[in-house]
Every structure is written in structure tokens, then in C-alpha cells.
Amino acid sequence: METEPIFQVRNLSKVYRTGEVEVRALDDVSLDLFAGEMAVLLGPSGSGKSTFLNIIGGIDTASSGSARFRGRELCGLNERQLTRYRRDHVGFVFQFYNLIPSLTALENVALVTEIARKPMPAGDALDLVGLKARMHHFPAQLSGGEQQRVAIARAIAKQPEVLLCDEPTGALDSKTGIVVLEALATVNATTGTTTAIITHNAGIRAIANRVFTFSDGRVSPSQINAHPVAPSEVEW
Fold this sequence. Notes:
The longest helix has 18 residues, at 174-191. The protein has helices at residues 49-56, 79-89, 105-113, 122-128, 144-156, 174-191, and strands at residues 5-18, 21-34, 38-42, 64-69, 72-73, 90-93, 162-166, 194-199, 210-215, 218-219, 223-224. With 236 residues, it is of the alpha/beta class. Helix 3 packs across helix 4 (122-128), helix 3 (105-113) packs parallel to helix 5 and helix 4 (122-128) packs across helix 5. It has six helices and eleven strands.
């Protein structure tokens, strides 16, 4: 794991206003994420963790503060610049798989490789998450955990520097969730992709290099795991 931060976030705030009502989704958040690490962003719904992930992923914009990716300021980029940033540098995994039903697993992943600068072969991405034997199956022929692993393969096929995962096990039972976490851990270890995982499940914190706890739009100082455990050892 590199010692230089890939993200440097300082005093980041996000305020939503509806009439006279003001909601501070993020309130003066500062943290660094390092290249190659696996970080868990822990907290209940509404704590600000998804808003934070969306801002550093270029999906949302901040109200104030700074978010730098490898020294480049993200706040203030226009839509075209944010689209290029997402395309070239970031992979996303969400709670729901968003696969195209009429395409096979291989074809779903290949869609991303067509627009990426330096993609890995779609079959290699599926092999990395343990789905080589299922690549010609359609989503309806796959379990929920397998569909989520296809979504992970799709995210990593363009070989992003950053993989941002928003509740990737939220729709899965514990046994299936562990398989998905194992896929994420394999990707992180094999490719060195900086991985940030949002969850409200405190058990998942054990797999991370560092844990950030969000509450009411603020973040607590990171907790370092000297010896992260294997996903199979997670207590749900």
C-alpha cells in the first residue's frame, strides 16, 4: 500500500436546502484515503457516508471544502470533466446490480470495456471474481451474489484506480455477502485498486485497513486495523 494519499479531503460540506429548511448531509469532513488500501465507511442511514462517496466519485458536488484526487481538485469541475474523471479513474458498485437482463454476464462486463482506455478482457474480470464458468449466463440465471459479482467485474474491467462500493452486501444474506466481500478483497489484493466500502454492518469493519465512522454528517478519526481479517472470519 502506498503512503501517499490518493484522495485528500478537507473541510468538505454538503448542504441541501428546501425553502427555509437546511440539511447538512456533510459537515466539515476531512480525511485521506491512500492508494491501494481497503477502507470501510461505517455508519447508519443518513450519516453522510453515501454523500461523501458520491462527491469523491464525481457523482455529486460539494457545497464547500476541497476534495483532491492525486492532487487534482474535484470540486468545481464541470459536468464534462466529471464524466471524464468517472470514466477514466473510478469504478462503482451499488447495492442493486443494475445489470441489463437481455445480456449475458460477459456482455454486461464488455459494455464497460468498450469505453475504457486500458480495459482488461471481460472474461478476465469475471474470472477474477470467480465467475469464469458462469460468463455466458443471463442475470435471471444467476443468484443475487453472482449478479453482484458480475457488477464488481464490470466495475473493475476498465481497471480503475478507485473502486467505490455503496452497501454492496446490503441486499444479500450473510453467507452470500461473505462471497461478495471475498471477491472485493481479491480485487484489492490482486489489482491494488483503492477500495472504499460503505456499510452499516459493523462486522464488515474487520476486513479493512482503516475504518471511518460517520454520524450526523461528521466523521470520526480513522481506526487502523493492524491485522485485517479474511471475509470468511467476519461476524455478521
